[in-house]
Write a structure and sequence with these properties.
The chain is mostly helical. Helices cover 73% and strands 0% of the residues. α2 (61-92) runs parallel beside α4 (119-147). It is elongated. The termini are close together.
């Protein structure tokens, strides 16, 4: 086996001078493919609460959060399943052809998601779109890793992951422009129709992209030695002690960051819903009339003047005023019972801070934009640290930062202006480790297993992540009312402890800074 401990020869001059026009073309194609992957993810997470309200109008908020969590789990399971299938295919069939196929799959199924008329169809299309998204990451990073010169590889891979934040930023901007009724007014469905456009990238992939020389040589050697069954073999990740250790390390790191991000960090739209009440201009005076009622008869008359939708809103606002008591009371009790002095005082404060649904949508859009600007900086931060100080110290620092940022944000957020500093900090910290996944995972495996191993770490972790996300809704309902802090926040803070898994995995992690990509001896 080639020595993985031999240092890469020093080359003078900036790293980018080693790159040819074709290097840049490969990088841009992979970057655009992954960028629009991330656009798909973000339009889903940012519009999830809006989508659930539209598809499940009669359900209460916690039920909508629960089904939104299930849809997220299904999307992540699709991501993991597609990642494993396409990851193996990338080692056997080729990086370029497989990447084109993944782009076509996720783009087509993203467009179909916008046509869903109920929760079940929406979840099915999310599963299929996730399958394409999951495959693209492993194939794209392996392609870039094998094309690039060794000195440029970590910078290129870190930049590939960081530039994906532009897809997230585009999703945030699209949310604020496409959805609100006072802008384009296309609603959440319009976001998914936009998400179908990246299928055009696949045309360029098929037309110009060549397979990496490393993979071509590995495939030729396997054919010559009649060992093609070992190309992309999942079992081979565990039969060799070195690859087994690397696989388990990568899996532990992936689980930590993915549960933290998908199970908690991407629930900032729901956090805004949880913290900031909404009320429409036409409903406000009717609710205020119930608030000012000075007798049981006056209160009953004010409540009876509300239509069905306004009654749901009134019950929600009253429940917000005293969450511990509200969790024990049904909607009929909330509507019938006159307001106590304590509830009146708290309800007045809630109404003072309440905004309209369109204003909240724009707040989510701004928050998503700020979160992704932070993410962009965070992934570049990891890239710079990893190149200078090594992969292991960089993971240690960023995993701890991510954990702390989630605890602070989900505990402290309570008013719109906090979005301006909590959201970019959250994006910076929770996405920084993902810059490491793009750099580190391809460095853990030989060419014949590179997309398989990268995909296994990045995507099998998603099966466990899907279970964590699935727990969020039921856990929130169980914890709601136990303390003054809403159950949703408590559940999110509890799931954030997933970062402990990554911290433990680092104990066995190999350091790969300034090392060539690992290879096996050719007989």
């Amino acid at each position: 086996m080639n020595s993985a401990k031999s240092s890469t020869p020093l080359v003078s001059g900036p790293w980018w001078r080693e790159l040819s026009g074709y290097h840049w073309f490969v990088f841009l194609i992979a970057a655009f493919g992954w960028m629009f992957d991330c656009f798909d993810q973000q339009i889903f997470t940012m519009s999830r609460s809006i989508t659930m309200r539209d598809l499940m109008p009669a359900a209460d908020t916690l039920t909508q959060i629960k089904y939104g969590g299930w849809a997220t789990s299904i999307f992540i399971v699709g991501w993991a399943t597609g990642g494993l299938i396409f990851g193996t295919l990338g080692d056997r069939w080729g990086r370029a052809k497989t990447m084109a196929l993944t782009i076509l799959v996720y783009a087509a199924c993203t467009g179909l998601s916008g046509l869903a008329t109920n929760w079940e169809y929406f979840a099915i299309f999310r599963f299929l779109a996730g399958a394409g998204v999951g495959g693209e990451f492993a194939v794209g990073t392996a392609l870039v890793a094998e094309i690039m010169p060794d000195r440029a590889r970590p910078i290129a891979l870190g930049s590939l992951q960081a530039l994906s934040a532009f897809g997230n930023i585009l999703a945030a901007v699209s949310l604020g422009v496409v959805v609100p009724s006072d802008k384009l007014g296309w609603g959440w469905r319009g976001l998914y129709y936009l998400g179908a456009l990246p299928a055009l990238i696949a045309v360029f992939v098929f037309a110009r992209l060549r397979e990496p020389e490393r993979w071509v040589a590995a495939k030729a050697a396997a054919v010559k030695n009649q060992t093609t069954k070992h190309l992309g073999s999942l079992s081979d990740l565990f039969t060799n002690a070195r690859w087994r250790r690397n696989t388990l390390v990568g899996l532990g790191l992936a689980i930590a960051g993915q549960i933290g991000l998908w199970g908690v960090g991407f629930y900032t739209p729901e956090l805004i819903d949880n913290a900031i009440a909404t009320i429409e201009p036409g409903t406000r005076p009717k609710v205020e009339a119930a608030l000012k009622a000075d007798s049981v008869a006056a209160h009953t008359a004010a409540v009876n003047a509300l239509d069905e939708k306004e009654k749901r809103k009134y019950a929600e606002l009253v429940s917000r005023a005293t969450p511990q008591a509200g969790a024990r009371e049904g909607r009929a009790d909330l509507l019938a019972a006159p307001l106590t002095a304590d509830r009146k005082e708290k309800l007045e404060e809630i109404l003072r801070r309440a905004i309209t649904e369109d204003e909240k949508t724009r707040l989510k859009s701004v928050g998503g934009l700020l979160q992704q600007v932070g993410a962009f900086c965070g992934m570049f931060f990891f890239t710079a640290m990893a190149a200078r100080f090594g992969r292991k110290p960089s993971f240690l620092i960023t995993l701890l930062m991510a954990w702390g940022s989630l605890l602070i944000t989900f505990y402290a957020f309570h008013e719109p202006k906090q979005v301006w500093y909590l959201w970019p900090a959250l994006g910076f910290c929770t996405l920084a480790p993902f810059g490491g996944y793009a750099i580190y995972f391809p460095e853990l495996f030989p060419t014949r297993l590179r997309t398989t191993g990268t995909s296994f770490c990045y995507n099998v972790g998603r099966y466990i992540t899907a279970f964590g996300v699935f727990l969020l809704g039921p856990l929130a309902q169980t914890l709601h009312g136990l303390t003054a802090l809403p159950g949703f926040r408590l559940a999110a803070m509890l799931l954030a402890s997933s970062y402990l898994i990554g911290l433990v995995a680092l104990i066995w992690a190999p350091e790969t800074v300034n090392q060539p990509l690992p290879e096996e001896a050719v007989s």
